Amino acid sequence: MARVGRKVRDKRLLALIGDYLRAGVLVGGTLEATEIGAPQGGPLSPLLADILLDDSRTKELESRGHCFVRYADDLLILVRGHRAGERVMASVSRYLTRTLKLVVNTHKSRVVKTDDCEFLGFTFRGKTLRWSERAYQDFRHRRHLLTERSWGVSMAYRLKQLSEYVRGWIGDFGISDDYRPIPERDHWLRRRIRMCYWKQWRGVQNRIRHLLTLGTPKRAAIWTGMSAKSDWHLSRSLGTQTGMTNDWLKGQGLISIRDQWMKAHGYA
Fold first, then answer.
1. Among 91, 179, 163, 78, residue whose Cα is nearest residue 131
2. Beta strand 118-119 pairing with 67-71
3. Hey, how many other C-beta atoms are within 10 angstroms of the C-beta on 193?
4. Binning pLDDT at 50, 70 and 90, where does residue 65 land?
């Protein structure tokens, strides 16, 4: 608050920030007082952290001539060798704990080569930037939940939620240079959405009618509609793919991961 007070003169704003910090947090439904720090996940916490760290730790690193990058409280310092890294980490840790009275997460703090480093959900392979395996698995998990056939929502709502999530994820991780899994993920996504439509079109007659309306040849529509195979299996059949074409799915609002990735790299 003393650092904020150097720039902010409005006493009402300072009082509001102070009240925010002392408001307490809910723990198991019980309000507990906060005697130190800021509530984790609150909108004010990153700003206050940035004020503290930019005014102190960043200036300290600059004065020592280190090459570094910082985002909020995540810090990456680049040195020439492992021994120099050990020395710098010990020095910076002492400064953080003794001068700034901060707690260093020893489990996440380590000295490694850049190829073994993960920063803000990215890894580095030479001069290429890739999303980390953990970030990619989180994306796959969330995408799977949004295309779960047992989710009892309308297709319009499902596609809207899916589009918002994919756009947000590509907004964060689309700068990755790894294009290889993108076409396969698009293919998987289209198949999952076909499966969801097939699940909603309950009944043989109803399914055949939908396929015929979409332009599926009569024989293929009847064969597919009468099939006892699983929804997932039939989502890749001739009947569903000639009816629920890629263009039709796009018209329904299905987002393309590839198109979003291309836009992130300036290709469209």
1. 179
2. unpaired
3. 23
4. confident
Length of the chain: 268
Torsion of CA 122, 123, 128, 129, to 10 degrees: 0
DSSP 172-199: HHTT-S--TTHHHHHHHHHHHHHHHHHH
pTM: predicted TM-score of the whole model, two decimal places:
0.76
Q: What is the average per-residue pLDDT within 176-182?
A: 89
Distance separating alpha carbons of residues 229 and 51, to the nearest angstrom? 60
C-alpha to C-alpha distance for 127 and 195, rounded to whole angstroms: 40
**Do residues 243 and 215 touch, judged by C-beta distance below 8 A?**
yes
Per the structure block, which two tokens stand in for 231? 């929804």
For residues 236 and 242, give the distance between their C-alpha atoms in angstroms, rounded to a whole number.
10
- What is the Cα–Cα distance from 194 to 181, expressed in whole angstroms? 20
Dist. CA 223–CA 218, nearest whole Å: 9
Q: What is the Cα–Cα distance from 111 to 154, expressed in whole angstroms?
A: 49
